[in-house]
Amino acid sequence: MPEGDATHPTAFEMAARQRAISVSEFFLKNRHLLGFDSQSKAVVTTVREAVDNALDACEEAGILPEIAVEISRRGAALRVAVEDNGPGIVEGQIGRIFGKLLYGSRFHKLSQSRGQQGMGISAAGMYGQLTTGLPMHIISRIAGEAQAAELHVSIDTSRNRPDIHRKRHLDWDRPHGTRVEVEIEGRYQRGPHSVESYLKQTAIANPHVTLALRDPDGVEIRFQRSVETLPPLPSEIRPHPHGVELGQLIQMLSDADARTLRQFLERAFSRVGRKTADAIIERASAGLSARSYPRRIAHAEATRLHRAIAGTRISGPRTDCLAPIGEERLLEGLRKEIDASFYTVLTRRPAVYRGNPFQVEVGLAHGKPGRPYLEADDGSTRRRKRRGDREQPAQAADLPGRSDEPVRLLRFANRVPLLYQQPACAITRAATQINWRSYGLRQPKGGLPLAPMVMLVHVASVWVPFTSESKEAVASYPEILRELKLGLQDCGRRLARYLRRDRALRLAEAQRSRIETYLPHVGIALQEILEIGDAERERTVAALDAVLRRQRKI
Q1: Rounded distance, CA 211 to CA 224, Å?
Q2: Residue 324 in contact with residue 460, Cβ under 8 Å?
Q3: Among 12, 68, 89, 354, which one is least packed by beta carbons within 10 Å?
């Protein structure tokens, strides 16, 4: 090919076109990776990111969360507003929190939290900026400050930095808290993939939270807290040696401030004391000693050190970094929001995948459509009203469904509902791989069982392995799948015992009903056989009826 052909660029021309891509610019063109791939999903994702941030902030500050969600129409767009009673945000941080992707306090923190990546709420602002051209509107006030700070923030996507359009101070009736408003191109819908469904499931997994929703039609729904205490705040832990990859270890060695390899191992990792550190160093052998300077360790030596770590027996990581819902709170949440005749919950003991501690919780709520519930919702925790109408208790939701429908599978990760990508999730995979027929349920091949039942599964971890940045499905690590199956099978055995008792009771009830139907005829036949009077016949029938009543009470 001739050099400098007009139809083909030269290497110098191609090199001139190369430029760095900011993370904001990348996600601007790949918004589906963050959960903004449809208008209806974009509304749910925006609400989820704002509510999750509010819950984390309130719990960390020791405040019982009260969160209000308002969605209103603005022409062809929707305005989503989320207001909380949290500690507020320092004014100098507001721009970076809402106008910079990958900015947060939890990415390097090994403790359970809802947010991990630092780009949820800022991504919602970027989506609004892309679809409506309007910046986010934030009002925040810290306790003790005379006024609240009000900012309008957008993202400079080419540089991934905040662009503050307006800023002022104003009077606000909240003593402390934050209000976030973003105008987006979206579509509000109802059903299993809706804002209402997300808030209902959030109320189940977080019974200490009060949530309120006003939708675009003026319908108001309230999920009142049923627990007046906050869950325990998880502790932060250092990484466990068995969860560190070789490249990560090399980076840690190059950034180390320890002067000896022994100090580095003791300071950088959890569960590594002097004895364990010496055992690792001894196993790594040639070229390394307890006094080796970490920053001068070469690649080959780091490789031997990594292999030595993997081959050394080290205690599992601490588990106080986890804050599971807990059996008592999980049961309270299920009873508060779901009508059923049978409830069972289970919190498994902590386990580990790739050095990261995690914990699985399972809850089942089995209903009987068309029959009175043994334990029913009192209707006081959730109310609905339209403008101009008197307030009435909300109708029962679609939880549980009909007996010929698949169970309603509610998936949670760190107390956050996962509404999308159900087939790709490890929770779904575990639930469908179990033989539910052995527990008394019908089940199509490769599918969820058919029953009027809610199946709730929660995975709590310092780092939930999501399958994508949109945080909608849990990856299928073998350790996680094993714990999920064991938890579901344990609850399945409890359900099977209940169903056997229930079937036996219903069979006995049917038999007693048939006998009661024929009691008068039995009395007449006995009267003819024994040649007794009417009074004796009535006493005999009454005695038989009393026996049946005693059996019914038993």
Answers
A1: 7
A2: yes
A3: 12
Alpha helices in 220-370 (DSSP H): 246-255, 261-268, 274-284, 299-311, 327-337
- In sequence order, which residues have a C-beta less than 8 Å from that of residue 409 and are 6 or more positions away? 422, 427, 428, 431, 448, 455, 457
231 secondary structure, DSSP code = P
Which letter does DSSP use for residue 442 in this model?
Answer: B
Question: Cα 25–466–205 angle (5° rounding)?
Answer: 115
**Per-residue CA distances from 238 to 60, 106, 266 (Å):** 19, 13, 10
- Rounded to an integer, what is the distance from CA 316 to the centroid of its chain? 25
List domains and CATH numbers for the chain: 23-189 (3.30.565.10), 241-311 (1.10.8.50), 327-388+399-500 (3.30.230.10), 505-553 (no CATH)
247, two tokens: 């490249």
> Which among 34, 145, 164, 165 is positioned nearest to 93, based on CA atoms?
164
Cα 273 from Cα 270, distance rounded (Å): 8
pLDDT band at 553 (very low <50, low <70, confident <90, very high): low
pLDDT at 394 over 50: no
Phi, psi of 158 (to 5 degrees): -70, -25
Q: Cα–Cα–Cα angle for 251, 467, 57, nearest 5°? A: 75
- Percent of the chain residues past pLDDT 90, beyond the cut: 44
- Phi-psi region for residue 414, left (φ > 0), alpha (ψ -120 to 50) or beta? left
User: In Å, what is the CA distance from 540 to each residue of 49, 516, 521?
Assistant: 71, 13, 12
Give backbone dihedrals phi and psi of 512, rounded to 5 degrees, phi first: -65, -40
CA distance 81 to 182: 7
113 burial level (CB within 10 Å; 0-12, 13-18, 19+):
buried
What's the whole-model pTM score?
0.79
**Cβ-count burial of 431 within 10 angstroms (0-12 exposed, 13-18 middle, 19+ buried)?**
buried
Of the pLDDT bands very low, low, confident and very high (cuts 50, 70, 90), residue 361 is very high
Cβ atoms of 82 and 69 closer than 8 Å: yes
- DSSP bridge partners of 461: 358
pLDDT at 380 over 70: no
DSSP 145: -
